[in-house]
Specification:
four-stranded parallel β-sheet; 2 domains; Rossmann fold; 267 residues; alpha/beta; 11 helices; binds S-adenosylmethionine
């Protein structure tokens, strides 16, 4: 996902740095400002048990899938509404393809983020093409309906939401961030939306995923590695009093960019 602050490009640096200060007994990795979940996903892939947390719900959705889901999804009950799914070798792709061909509807995304839905209002927006906005609405409404009707379980629900979040981002009419949209629909935004299945990281451990303020969560969890990548805005970081855990001043024990000089450092 396009995300300023993603540590995707720093994963090998993080892994090497962390490996220099831990021993072989460490098995629980805590990523408590998880954002896109890319760091927890990396260490989950390495066999760790992950505890992920973020105060934002979109991040919870991504982490609930990338971290929380760790076995293949079967979509057993969708046989009732998607004929043929029982014969499919990859049910996640089958469900995504089914959702991709739904007829678009005028819903929240269309009415708030597309030209067709906003052009008569005070604020005109074109974050997505009308066609893709409607398609996104149809898929979102269907996922919620399936959940409410008990046709998908929680794991399947968050897989589908994470897939929708990741996929729609690829068709956004922005210069990567959502602070502003482009005046004309760029080429990728003109393409017809297709729902792609979000990657499933299989691993034989149970993981924990939270959607809480770190200040309350920290008191209830235990782990071996504590990775903290707090917000860069100093005011927000100050409000998040995470810099003192069990008498350890974390500002002095961090591998992060948002403390001190702003340079990555390892103490
Ligand atoms: C710099 S980003 C983390 C990026 C992440 N490491 C990645 O690679 O995608 C900081 C995250 O901290 C979260 N956050 C901010 N204040 C928080 C709080 N009080 N408790 C939990 N999460 C918080 C934000 O929602 C944001 O996702």
């Amino acid at each position: 996902m396009n995300y300023i602050g993603s540590k995707y490009s720093l994963l090998s640096f993080l892994e090497e740095s962390i490996n220099t200060v831990i021993d072989g007994d460490c098995s629980v990795f805590c990523d408590l400002f998880a954002g896109t979940g890319i760091v927890g996903s990396h260490f989950k892939d390495k066999g760790y048990c992950i505890i992920a947390n973020d105060i934002q719900y979109y991040s919870y959705v991504l982490n609930r899938h990338y971290i929380g889901n760790h076995t293949e999804l079967e979509f057993e009950k969708l046989r009732i509404v998607i004929p043929g799914i029982e014969y499919s070798l990859n049910k996640s792709i089958f469900v995504c393809d089914y959702l991709s061909q739904l007829e678009g509807v005028e819903g929240f995304v269309f009415n708030n983020y597309c030209d067709g839905g906003t052009s008569r209002g005070k604020i005109q927006r074109q974050y997505f093409s009308d066609e893709n906005g409607k398609k996104c609405d149809a898929i979102r409404v269907t996922i919620e309906k399936w959940k409410n009707e008990g046709l998908i379980n929680e794991d399947e629900y968050f897989f589908l939401l994470a897939s929708l979040l990741e996929s729609i981002d690829k068709y956004a009419n922005t210069a990567s961030v959502y602070g502003a949209f482009l005046k004309k629909l760029k080429k990728t935004a003109q393409k017809t939306f297709k729902l792609e299945p979000a990657k499933l990281i299989t691993n034989d451990q149970e993981h924990q995923v939270y959607n809480e303020d770190i200040n309350t969560l920290l008191k209830r969890i235990t782990g071996d590695v504590l990775y903290l990548d707090p917000p860069y805005n100093r005011e927000k970081a100050k409000k998040t009093k995470v810099f003192d855990v069990d008498g350890i001043n974390l500002e002095e024990h961090c591998v992060c960019e948002s403390c001190g000089s702003g340079q990555p450092r390892l103490n």
